[in-house]
Amino acid sequence: xxxVRKGFSSxxxxxxxxxxxxxxxxxxxxxxxxxxxxxxxxxxxxxxALSRSLLYSVTSSMxxxxxxxxxxxxxxxxxxxxxxxxxxKFLQYYARRLNSVEINYTFRRLPAESTLENWIKATPExxxxxxxxxxxxxHILRLKDAExxxxxxxxxxxxxxxxHRLGPILFQLPPNFPCDQERLAAFLASLxxxxxxxxxxxxxxxxxxxxxxxxxxxxxxxxxxESEKLEIPEVATANYVYFRLRKAEYPEGERKAIWTxxxxxxxxxxxxxxxxxxxxxxxxxxxxxxxxxxx
Length: 295
Known about the structure:
Blueprint: E1 7-9, E2 15-17, H1 27-33, H2 40-59, E3 64-68, H3 90-97, E4 100-103, H4 113-122, E5 128-131, H5 135-140, H6 147-156, H7 158-162, E6 169-172, H8 181-190, E7 197-200, H9 209-217, E8 221-226, E9 240-245, H10 252-267, E10 271-276, H11 283-294
Helix pairs in contact: 8-9
């Protein structure tokens, strides 16, 4: 029976809890909660699913978070950013109109602590950042033996977690990475349970029931990515959902359909994250604002 991971490992290999978080369930307490005759594997799977699910069912307020995949675009003037707003104030202004942003910057480099601190200062309480995981995890290591660098990445974004500004972490797999359920299972089991994650699969072989069940076991969201090339089925695998809408334009009828899908998930008491594509035009940001206005 493997142990539920309680935190990051220090460089020396010793386990330490995440700052500001409980170290998790204690084994002795678990023995009192569940009868000993249950099969160890079944018990372990049950506790993992419960611990991940309860963590957010207790703290979640069934919120809608909407934004774009980035914010630093001067070409959004004047339709979104006023002409007189300097680039250094873009995030501060963005956060007045939208309540979340997906960060692609973290795909190529680890963020400096000072950068995250500036982002936190520029945004109000409740604003969430959804960082994309580093390419070393998804594209170079391809989830294999990625535990050490994943810990490095999670430590880098920890200022967001510590200030309650961390949304789901997006793991975007490359298009030429076919399904490997065993590798995915091992990687999911290594992740700390007190964070939220979304997986974007871009090879059709991943879109099968066993993968959905694996994500559901760990309360990890299947990223509902929509693009001109591939549409992911809207299979809910967590008690939050993550839309990634990649088309450059969404006519009114399609936006109404998106709002209907969002309402349906909110009605099921799930937090909903919706991120539109970042483009040279601010249309994605305006679509996101429209969603929040409806809500």
